[in-house]
Amino acid sequence: MLDLVLAIVHHVLIFGIFGILFAELMAVRLDVSSATAARIASIDLWYGIFAGAVVIIGFCRANFAAKGWTYYSHNAFFWAKIMTFAGIGLLSVPPTIVFVRWRRAGIAPDDAGIGKVRRYVHVELALFVLMLIFAAAMARGYGEF
Fold first, then answer.
1. How many domains, the chain?
2. pLDDT by residue (tens digit) across 119-135?
3. How many Cβ atoms from other residues are within 10 Å of residue 90's Cβ?
4. Confidence at 53, pLDDT banded by 50, 70, 90
5. What's the pTM?
6. Residue 144, SS3?
7. Which of 74, 120, 125, 141 is deepest in the core (most CB within 10 A)?
8. Sign of the C-alpha dihedral, residues 46, 82, 91, 22?
């Protein structure tokens, strides 16, 4: 039962992160108002909360669930998934800093800043798809060493 609960929570959080990233992409447009910029910063806070929860639940799954740490620690796709998730997390830092600045300034962001943030979010979403591919391969036993 623990394995099922951890898997459900993990997957809901992952899909939540994807939804948040997509919401950020849709919200960060050339005509962003100061109020919208503040809402984007609030949405981004949830991104951080979900990401932290994914790491905690994910490592609980790897250690305490059905397959156990030995299965995951010897799988190249597991490590590729972890590294991709870490890369997505690192790429999320510059947009988060920008979102906080927009909120604090209380003014509409400029077009150059918006374009830069959108590029980061596009790359995050592309890597997210790659991470899901790694997860599917790992779950099926590919990549064992």
1. 1
2. 999 999 999 999 999 99
3. 10
4. very high
5. 0.91
6. strand
7. 120
8. negative
